[in-house]
Structure formats: C-alpha cells, structure tokens
Amino acid sequence: xxxxxxxxxxxxxxxxxxxxxxxAASADMSWKAQDRYSKDLEVIKGRGVKVxxxxxxxxxxxxxxxxxxxxxxxxxxxxxxxxDSQKAWAKRxxxxxxxxxxxxxxxxxxxxxA
Length: 114
Known about the structure:
By secondary structure, the protein is mainly α. The chain has helices spanning 4-9, 12-46, 56-73, 77-100, 104-112.
C-alpha cells in the first residue's frame, strides 16, 4: 500500500518500478503459497490429521447464509456496488475456467493415481 499523493509525485519510471515490483511480489507469494500449502498438507496428513473437503451440503448452507448477509448489507450502496462488481468478475472468470481449462483430475489420476 502506498500513499497515492506521494506515488503520483514520483517520476513515471519510478511509478512503473513500484507497479511492477508489486505485481512481481504478488506472483511470487502465489507460487510460494502453492509450494507451502501443498507441503504443509502432506505434513499434517503425515501426523494423522484426517483432511476432508467441505461436504456439498455444508457448502450449500454456507452459500445460503452468505446470500442472506449479502441481501442485508446490500442496503448500503457502496457495499452493493462492491458485491455486484465481485459477482460480475467471478461470473466471467469462473465461466472462462469452466469452459476453457481442462479437468486437472484426469491428468493427475493418469500420472499419480495410487
């Protein structure tokens, strides 16, 4: 996070350095998270922790509860603007993923299924 006034006062080349450094740091953390989370999962499973995905009925109940929260908080115009923007983004991005990206499970099972 940067002070906008201070950033706007910088020369364009320094503004670009900040912009691309922030993007690189974000990408770096995404890759590190994938590495760390997958390693951590194996560690806790090795300690006997039973790991299960959220059951569909629980997820559906969470989504129904979230619908109520959204409805209640959407009386605030700013909240409604933000949630509408998030929903539009998710609708477009997830629709793309569902249509375009291949099912990773098929390839995973091909190479690693026990």
